[in-house]
Amino acid sequence: MGVSEASNDPIERASQDEIVAGVIGLAPGLWLATWLFQVIPVFFFVGGYANLIAFDSARRRGESVVTFVRQRVRRLLVPSLVFVALWLPSRSSFTFQA
Which of 2, 5, 66, 95 could form a disulfide with 17 if both were Cys (CB 3.0 to 4.6 A apart)? Predict the structure, then answer.
């Protein structure tokens, strides 16, 4: 491919015939930033905290755990079932026959 083994500079290697799959290969140590700035774990922590606050509020109102869980499941399942009910017929209309 024309890349010399003597070159340790990732920018120089990438500027030759080498294909780099992403920026991580160009900047040493950038992989550490990807571990520190992940977005999905933040959603899990915020969602967990929001559920804890909602659960505490429900307990102060005197609701049981079963009532709280039933309400949460209903609030999650109804939109999901509507989505699936609309998605399944459209999915079958997009299948191609070989």
Answer: 2
